[in-house]
Design brief:
- With 229 residues, the protein is of the alpha/beta class.
- The chain contains 7 helices and 9 strands, in the order βααβββαβαβαβαββα.
- The strands form 3 sheets. The chain has a 5-stranded parallel β-sheet, with helices on both faces.
- Strand 5, helix 4 (97-103) and strand 6 form a beta-alpha-beta unit.
- The longest helix has 19 residues, at 204-222.
- Bound molecules: adenine.
- Adenine binds next to strand 5 and helix 6.
- Adenine (ADE) is lined by residues 88-90, 114, 133-135, 137-139, 142, 145.
């Protein structure tokens, strides 16, 4: 799967892309993440400025339409796979596990990371990206949101997690739309807190029933909205 990130701050991704799971997925050739600096497509001006004041007044600056549209067209031409265009913005559809699963089957995602007050609205009219938000709060830019989104997608790609670490049972996932059951490891007892007896019983049927029950009670107590009506 290929990701093309369009950002004014490509270096924000340096640490993230070179660590642990992401680095391994890249080394294995399962994901290819290309960063592109929007400033390379700055219109002809001495400071390579890509933003300007909003018409009608108001605080902040907007990323300009020509720069963005030309950058997207140039980046799309770098690879023949079709792209799904995404813009990260607090105005977008909320990212959840279902959306991550949907995006994980795309061969290529092009991700627009906004800064300042965002993009000139004609970027949306012309490029028609899917607008995605990672939650009802405002970040300084789309870069951190892009990392969150990529992280949730990459772990779903076949071969990224080992079998022993399957994402199938994760909270909210296809195998379990509710919260996960609690887990324990050694020691069996610590400061008077014992591992539930059933988990030591070796009785797989009882263990499965206990886990099922934990999923239900936990979800009801913490996230009642996830239970089917
Ligand atoms: N950019 C700024 N805030 C954001 C959010 N909550 N989600 C996605 N992109 C953003």
């Amino acid at each position: 799967m290929r990701f093309d990130l369009l950002t004014l701050f490509p270096a924000i991704f340096d640490g993230y892309l070179t660590q642990s799971l992401l680095d391994k997925a890249i080394q294995k050739g399962l994901v290819d993440i290309q960063r592109h600096n929007l400033r390379e497509w700055a219109q002809d001006n001495p400071h390579r400025q890509v933003d300007d004041k909003p018409f009608g007044g108001g605080p902040g600056m907007l990323i300009q339409v020509q720069t963005t549209v030309e950058a997207v067209e140039a980046v799309e031409a770098m690879d023949s796979r079709p792209t799904r265009r995404i813009m990260l913005t607090p105005q977008g559809k909320r990212l959840d596990q279902r959306l991550a699963e949907e995006l994980a089957v795309c061969p290529r995602l092009l991700i627009l990371c906004g800064r300042y007050e965002g993009f000139d609205h004609r970027v949306n009219d012309i490029l028609e990206p899917d607008e995605i938000s990672i939650g009802d709060f405002v970040l300084n830019g789309g870069e951190v949101a892009a990392m969150v989104m990529i992280d949730s997608i990459v772990r779903l790609l076949p071969g990224v997690l080992g079998d022993e670490q399957s994402s199938w049972d994760d909270s909210f996932s296809r195998g379990n739309r509710m919260l996960e059951f609690p887990q324990y490891t050694r020691p069996r007892s610590y400061r008077g807190h014992d591992v539930p007896e059933v988990l030591l019983s070796g009785d797989h049927k009882r263990i499965a029933a206990w886990r099922e029950e934990q999923i239900r009670t936990r979800t009801a107590a913490r996230r009642n909205d996830l239970l089917e009506p």
